[in-house]
Design goal:
The protein has 284 residues and is an alpha/beta fold. The chain folds into 2 domains: 169 residues, Rossmann fold; 101 residues, Pantoate--beta-alanine Ligase, Chain: A,domain 2 (2-Layer Sandwich), CATH 3.30.1300.10. Helix content is 37%, strand content 22%. Helix 6 crosses helix 7 and helix 9 runs antiparallel to helix 10. Bound molecules: pantoate. The site of pantoate has 10 residues, from strand 2 and helix 6.
Length: 284
């Protein structure tokens, strides 16, 4: 049975669990992508905790903190249906009883790509993730691969700060038309959604190219076409990066890369990515 708990209730629940605990950290507005995270959490741990908290620290001035979708009742329905054991949905004063003086710095990796577009975003993400880990004390935490840079930074958080939490991840879940699921998709009009499909098309183009340089060029060409055809589409970046460091791949790169994409469609900023592995000039 799903229990909704405050910090004290969470601590009591944690004490009572004898097996392993998986945490699924979320900001709510749950969709099928989150449900995959829950399913994965059930596979790898005895008990599943979910946090639902729209974290003000990771939103910049003028971003969508105020209008970020919030529907706790609908989220709890999903948690109950999916057998989440405990839901921790603190309000702001419970999570941040006072303005934090000390926060986590995401370092260089936190200042590129999404971090360049959203200064301070990853410091805010890592700070709240560290706080959630402290409160839930999970054995493992499950994140979506859709936020590839966030995932890479959370992996660094736990290794660099010796947090003792294993990080697991789940591949991007896409709608039938190819658009990656995101709580922000609900901001899109039907026309904008159609335009946004340039992102998965760019990934397909990259997958059919051979070699790192060709893959990035193919993605950029697809997105440049979208910009020409749709004035509401504006590309932020389309770059192939080394998966571990988020530095740009040289043209002859070999190994694990991520093609990271971000674009604005109307007023909505969307991100997408694809993991690509390069061996010589061929792509696996
Ligand atoms: O990915 C998210 O939903 C958020 O960034 C997270 C990890 C829950 C931290 O607020």
């Amino acid at each position: 049975m799903t229990r909704v708990v405050d910090t004290a209730g969470l601590a009591r629940w944690r004490e009572s669990v004898t097996g392993s605990v998986a945490l699924v950290p979320t900001m709510g507005a749950l969709h099928d992508g989150h449900r995959r995270l829950i399913a994965r959490a059930h596979e790898i741990a005895d008990a599943v905790a979910m946090s639902i908290f729209v974290n003000p620290l990771q939103f910049g001035p003028g971003e969508d903190f105020e209008r970020y979708p919030r529907d706790l009742d609908a989220d709890l329905e999903i948690c109950r249906a999916d057998g989440v054991d405990v839901v921790f949905a603190p309000d702001q004063s419970e999570m941040y009883p006072r303005e934090p003086e000390v926060t986590v710095s995401a370092g260089r990796m936190g200042t590129v790509f999404e971090g360049a577009a959203r200064p301070g975003h990853f410091d805010g993400v890592l700070t709240v993730v560290a706080k959630l880990f402290q409160r839930v004390r999970p054995d493992v935490a499950v994140f979506g691969q859709k936020d590839a840079q966030q995932l890479a930074l959370v992996e660094r958080l736990v290794t660099d700060l010796d947090l003792g939490v294993r990080i697991d991840s789940v591949p991007i879940v896409r709608d039938a038309d190819g658009l990656a699921l995101s709580s922000r998709n609900r901001y899109l009009s039907a026309r904008e959604r159609e335009t946004a499909l340039a992102l998965p098309r760019a990934i397909e183009a990259a997958r059919s190219a051979s070699g790192a340089q060709a893959a990035q060029d193919a993605a950029r060409a697809t997105l440049a076409d979208a910009e020409r055809q749709h004035p509401e589409f504006s590309l932020d970046y389309a770059t192939l990066v080394d998966r571990a460091t988020f530095t740009e791949c040289p043209p002859d790169f070999r190994g694990d890369a991520v093609l990271v994409l971000a674009a604005r469609v109307g007023a909505t900023r969307l991100i997408d990515n694809a993991s690509l592995h390069f061996v010589g000039q061929s792509l696996l």
